[in-house]
């Protein structure tokens, strides 16, 4: 994949001047400096976008495509210039691939980091990106003082990416494993509700985070919180629902500070109860309902009455 390694791929001429980033709101510094832990840390070297560097990067990506790779995450696109990205991600590389960039921001429209880094990337490339604006919206909505009404239409407010460009999530590798981001680890119950929203809604491609207990954070049972998350029984239910309603239109049936009901065409309904008490919901649906999660349900010919426990969600297939 790396070609002839009898001599180094790069030498000192291929790197920009070594200096650590100190001002994370200075676009030039962020895209040319080194990610560093301080004066004692030499940091991560930054390559130039020279013809030789770009050729090596494109050759590497082509080799991965030939091995059967069908997608790439650009880590971290925030630290590359748009000119460099344009030289590497040419049609022969992007054709038939799912590619998304990691551009960490503290929110969506009106936030300085969004306007400095993510907005230009979205305007000047056709690549997808982590939906950090939506994550910020979700984090706030599921906080103690937040409202689920924030989640009704965040895109219209500039607080979510467009559906075709969005990689949606509730946790990334950085959040539990990096001291800078660990404050964004959600309450365990609230994260499951957020996952029900991310996976149950129509929009973006959900990213499911799982690890090998790298953070040491545990769940309520004292077990590694995200270990084997991809095959957790609740996750299996969520993915079953996601696949069953894929491509169905989304409507907001009901919303309030603590409740959100999402309809997915004629095939399914997501009910999220963030509140501290169980809540009842009436759905005007015919009988023949399959529960993907365990809740109390009463059916008659024209409606379904569903009782959802506090801090819980229900997934219903019709």
TrEMBL record:
<keyword id="KW-0119">Carbohydrate metabolism</keyword>
<dbReference type="GO" id="GO:0043169">
    <property type="term" value="F:cation binding"/>
</dbReference>
<dbReference type="InterPro" id="IPR006046">
    <property type="entry name" value="Alpha_amylase"/>
</dbReference>
<dbReference type="GO" id="GO:0005975">
    <property type="term" value="P:carbohydrate metabolic process"/>
</dbReference>
<dbReference type="GO" id="GO:0004556">
    <property type="term" value="F:alpha-amylase activity"/>
</dbReference>
<keyword id="KW-0378">Hydrolase</keyword>
<protein>
    <submittedName>
        <fullName>Alpha-amylase</fullName>
        <ecNumber>3.2.1.1</ecNumber>
    </submittedName>
</protein>
<keyword id="KW-0326">Glycosidase</keyword>
<dbReference type="InterPro" id="IPR017853">
    <property type="entry name" value="GH"/>
</dbReference>
């Amino acid at each position: 994949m790396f070609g002839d390694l009898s001599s180094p791929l790069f030498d000192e001429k291929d790197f920009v001047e070594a200096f650590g980033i100190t001002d994370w709101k200075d676009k030039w510094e962020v895209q040319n400096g080194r990610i560093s832990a301080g004066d004692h840390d030499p940091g991560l070297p930054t390559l130039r976008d020279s013809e030789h560097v770009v050729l090596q990067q494109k050759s590497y990506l082509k080799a991965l495509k030939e091995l059967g790779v069908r997608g790439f995450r650009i880590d971290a696109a925030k630290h590359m210039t748009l000119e460099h990205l344009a030289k590497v991600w040419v049609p022969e590389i992007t054709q038939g691939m799912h590619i998304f960039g990691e551009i960490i921001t503290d929110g969506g429209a009106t936030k300085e980091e969004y306007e400095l880094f993510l907005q230009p990337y979205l305007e000047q490339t056709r690549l997808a990106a982590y939906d950090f604006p939506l994550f910020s919206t979700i984090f706030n909505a599921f906080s103690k003082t937040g409202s689920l009404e924030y989640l009704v239409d965040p895109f219209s407010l500039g607080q979510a990416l467009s559906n075709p460009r969005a990689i949606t999530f509730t946790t990334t590798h950085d959040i539990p494993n990096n001291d800078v981001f660990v404050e964004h680890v959600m309450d365990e119950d609230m994260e499951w509700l957020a996952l029900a929203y991310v996976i149950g809604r129509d929009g973006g491609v959900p990213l499911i985070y799982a690890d090998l207990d790298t953070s040491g954070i545990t769940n309520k049972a004292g077990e590694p919180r995200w270990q084997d998350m991809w095959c957790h029984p609740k996750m299996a239910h969520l993915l079953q629902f996601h696949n069953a309603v894929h491509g169905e239109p989304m409507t907001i049936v009901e919303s309030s500070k603590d409740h959100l009901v999402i309809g997915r065409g004629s095939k399914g309904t997501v009910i999220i109860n963030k509140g501290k008490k169980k809540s009842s919901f009436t759905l005007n649906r015919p009988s023949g309902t399959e529960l993907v999660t365990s809740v109390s349900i009463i059916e008659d010919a024209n409606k379904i009455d569903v009782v959802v426990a506090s801090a819980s969600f229900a997934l219903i297939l019709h």
